[in-house]
Amino acid sequence: MPLSARIQARGIQLLLGRMISRVHRDLRFTDIAKDTEALRVETGAGPVSCTVYRPPVTTDTPAPVYVNFHGGGFVVGRPEQDDHICRYIAATAGCVVINVDYAVAPQRQYPVPVTQAYDVTAWVAENGSAGGWDGSRLAVGGHSAGANLTAAVCRLARDRGTFSPRLQILDSAPFDQLADPATKQSLIAKPLLTPQIMRIFVAAYVPDPADRAHPLVSPGLADDLAGLPPALVITAANDRLRDEGDAYAKALDAAGVPVTHRVFEGVDHYFTHTGPVPEGKEAIDLMATTLRTALGAGD
Questions:
Q1: Distance, CA of 162 to CA of 125 (rounded, Å)
Q2: Identified catalytic residue from 70, 82, 119, 144
Q3: Is 144 a catalytic residue?
Q4: Which end of the chain is less congested by CB atoms within 10 angstroms, N or C?
Q5: Does 269 qualify as catalytic in the annotation?
Q6: Catalytic annotation on 239?
Q7: Residue 48 in contact with residue 120, Cβ under 8 Å?
Q8: Tens digit of pLDDT for each residue in 235-285?
Q9: Where do the domains of the chain lie?
């Protein structure tokens, strides 16, 4: 990895990380109580810290579980930016939520985040009795870079036959890391993601160009999607990543995978965190209600 690319990625972490991970005050769901605990999971790429969110209402049977991966271009490591989503899902979907603090670039590059994401999810699936959740009723999802990791986790789970998520949530994901970001168009003049920052993210996470077409890096370039878990695909109409998200939803459907695809009009990348508030809340509620149905929460 060129020194300049590493310096640029570190600059984003140090100077822009807090700004990038900022959540609109009206999307923080401060009316929902926060009941969390720390969890540490050993993986094949080192230990990973997680935050566990418990649903406010307990039942006689263990609650299902949802594993969440935050965004940040594989460079910004701030899982707390998804706190509002995790709290809302735990309360509304009635499930335990595991928010994963996976390693980020340039310090840890591909395939480390994929290994950690998969190993944590496999551990959650296998250790429900110890953790106090039902690992057989599991879903996985993420936002932006975290949605890319979600797709990778689901592919590995299918190929290895280890566990079967009941749902994957793919929110504003980069599905093609090979294409030049300048070819990814937006409906607005100044979208949040610029070609320059997207190139920095890709170079930091996948420094070897030969790896960028791999299906664990660019799920949208894969042609063997049959057998993947049912998916909720969310795209933002003004996002540079909208076209590849729409295409992935269509490809999943063509492969026989049950897909719910929702395009939110008039919004840009990361709108579930920065707004507009009505659309952000609607998208987060769609995640929670779809999860509740898929996981059979309350059954």
A1: 9
A2: 144
A3: yes
A4: C
A5: yes
A6: yes
A7: yes
A8: 999 999 999 999 999 999 999 999 999 999 999 999 999 999 999 999 999
A9: 3-295
